[in-house]
Amino acid sequence: MLAVAIVATTTAQERKNSVVITEGPYLQAVGENEFTVVWMTDQDAVSWVEIAPDDGTHFYNRERPKFYQTRYGRKVIGNLHTIRVSGLEPGTTYRYRIISAAALKGEKDRVRFTEQRGSDVYRRQPYFVTTLNHAKESVSFAMVNDIHGKTAEFETLMADAAERKYDFVCFNGDMTSRNNKQDEVFKFYLSSASKLFAKETPLVYVRGNHETRGTYAVSLPEWVARYNSDGTNAFYRIDRWVPKGNIANYKNNEVAVVEEIKGKATKLLSDVDLDLDNSAYGHMCYTPAGNTMLFEFASQAVAQERLGSDAATDVLNICLDTPRYIAETYGPESIEYEDMLYRLDAALAEFLTYIYAQVGGKDNAIVVLTSDHGTAPSYNPQGGTQRERFNTRQMEVIVNAFLGAHHGSGEYLLGFANNALYLDHEFLLEKKLSVETIQEEVATFLLQLRGVSTAISATALRNTSFGEGRMRLVQQSFFSTRSGDVIIDFMPGWMVESTDYRSTSHAGYRYDRSVPLIISGGGLAPQSIARTVSIVEVAPTIADIIGVESPWASSSRPIKEINN
């Protein structure tokens, strides 16, 4: 009697905690051989999709294949379920059902689940899905946009979507006015879409500008948030930077750097532990650990977003900022920079090996390696002296005093950033001064300061067309609504004053504009191009290799030597 009572109590508790499917399902990413089903539950659960051919048999006259969402070889437990079904035949109709089982909490050594809940295939028809058929002569679809959360209007518009048997429905942006929480995405349109058609008609979603507004819109994907919360980054931090090879054989040991710079440069490669606390992740940018962690994170992105898993070309951009931090902090002549390059070479080789394995070989991936800029030497080879430095704060004080002497006292400047001075336009308006006039006055005055090579007003850049030379480069980098009022460039080798840096970048000189360009994979034959290749040739070249239209704003043709 006691045993029966215990069993009865447990069963009641499990039923009480039984999962409820709150949203969905709806179809996504229907291809020739696959489709994806998405739904939500009111609590953490393990979920799966079962499929059967559309052959008239009862769904459960035999055991049907089950498809789970997995991560690291384990079934995913959560409340948002994204299940991919693969290995299907093109142009074929299948039946499917969704099932979830809630995970009971409080278990120390194992996970127990409640009774499963899902779509009813005993008294009702299962859901139907048809894979794509590339030989189909026509396609039908509906497109909806600018609903802005008006659910009633949306349901009116799409009331007959199921009867029309569209091949897909496209949400073309601005379905909400803003996204502040996840529930709103379902409340305003996804719940209605699932009820009306999306269980059996694929849904394609394109974000509009309003979908980028709100706190939920800028939140990270779930796998990124999990990666950060798990503390995986901490694994890559290093407490001591030890050389990868025999430091006596490093080429940069032979560079005659002045003692004060050399002392700074060798601080990390020593017997001194790095002063790190639990939150010092920013320090990773200044050690090779930054590169290692970024490649690992990129590998996660490839796996989680299934990049390269279908016929459509995916693009993965990786910006390795650690080389810049190390070059500018310790100098490109430092042994830190050299050691970082050895480690970067090994990390890059490991990452590319992973990429090639994911996509089925080098011919199925195009690797482009380049840089947005170079860096200046940290010292003068003649005499071994440090580079000249320009004090921008002192410049602001001098310019403000100059304007005050001519137009009356006040704070004329907002500040200096990205090699540009920003004027306070509201203050100029109050004083009834022309912004254009003040820009020209400041530009002319700055040319008198030691270290300034170029100073040009925003007005001049808007009204003048520079056909060639360095001014052409400055103009191409100018963005009228964001760039400053007076753009400044310094003499070759000069750096903005900073005690933390030994080198600099973002100048218009050869040392900063000369960067490598390597394009590999995609079936390209090996060759070396001796001429100077412009960076604007890269985008149209990649577009040509993968067989898509060149970007509309492109100002160049593909690299002529590459014959795809």
Q: Keyphrases for this structure?
A:
564 residues; alpha+beta; Immunoglobulin-like; 8-stranded antiparallel beta sheet; 4-stranded antiparallel beta sheet; 16 helices; 21 strands; 30% helix; globular; disordered N terminus
Topology:
Elements: H1 2-16, E1 21-28, E2 35-53, E3 66-68, E4 70-71, E5 74-75, E6 77-85, E7 93-104, E8 112-113, E9 117-118, E10 127-130, E11 141-144, H2 151-157, H3 161-164, E12 168-171, H4 182-198, E13 203-205, H5 222-229, H6 259-265, H7 289-304, H8 322-330, H9 335-359, E14 366-369, E15 389-390, H10 392-407, E16 413-417, E17 420-423, H11 425-430, H12 435-446, E18 452-457, H13 458-463, H14 469-476, E19 486-490, E20 495-496, H15 510-513, E21 518-521, H16 538-546
Parallel strand pairs: 11-12, 12-13, 15-20
Antiparallel strand pairs: 1-2, 2-3, 2-6, 2-7, 4-5, 7-8, 7-9, 7-10, 14-21, 16-17, 17-19, 18-19
Helix pairs in contact: 7-9, 8-9
Rounded average pLDDT: 83
Number of helices: 16
- Give the beta-strand count: 21
How many structural units, i.e. domains? Answer: 4
Radius of gyration: 31 Å
Structural class: alpha+beta
Uncertain parts: 1-15
